[in-house]
Write a structure and sequence with these properties.
The chain is built from 1 helix and 8 strands. With 142 residues, the chain is of the alpha+beta class. Strands 1, 2, 5 and 8 form a 4-stranded mixed beta sheet that branches. A 4-stranded antiparallel beta sheet has the order 4-3-6-7, with no helix packed on it. The longest helix is centred in the first third of the chain and has 27 residues, at 2-28. The relative contact order is 0.21.
């Protein structure tokens, strides 16, 4: 009987020891300190640019003016780097994921042969984390 009791106590002690080892490993996060932790990811929002085209004061389609693409250039203010998205003109809008910041945006209507038909500047676009920032562009072409 004493042998049976000793086995139960030994098994319980081993389980308790393993539980303590696992709990302390989980709480340490691999032995790093709070200062070693990576910074949280930046807030991400979206910029949605929608476009229409006008010629002589009338709404026209991409095909009417030989519009093949819309190029959207996004430059974060105070930074040298930016991104460029090229979307089919017929899509009539596009959404870009961006870190929360203030941007200068340039939208250009481009022909299939890569000639610019019209360019629109959109300064001071504020994109907030977790939010969509819509902007409408009207391309005016002859």
């Amino acid at each position: 009987m004493a042998s049976s009791r000793r086995t139960v106590v030994l098994a319980t002690s081993c389980r308790l020891a393993w539980a303590l080892v696992l709990a302390s490993a989980a709480s340490c996060g691999g032995g790093g300190t709070l200062e070693d932790a990576p910074p949280p990811p930046p807030d991400v929002g979206t910029l949605t640019v929608a476009w229409t085209i006008e010629s002589d004061g009338l709404a026209v389609s991409c095909g009417d003016v030989n519009g093949g693409w819309v190029r959207i250039e996004v430059l974060a203010q105070g930074q040298g780097a930016g991104i460029v998205e090229t979307l089919p003109c017929s899509a009539e809008s596009g959404t870009i994921d961006l870190d929360a910041a203030t941007f200068d945006v340039v939208a250009a209507l481009i022909t299939p042969s890569n000639s610019e038909l019209n360019t629109v500047n959109i300064p001071d676009v504020v994109v907030g984390g977790g939010q969509d920032t819509p902007r409408n562009v009207v391309f005016i072409v002859p």
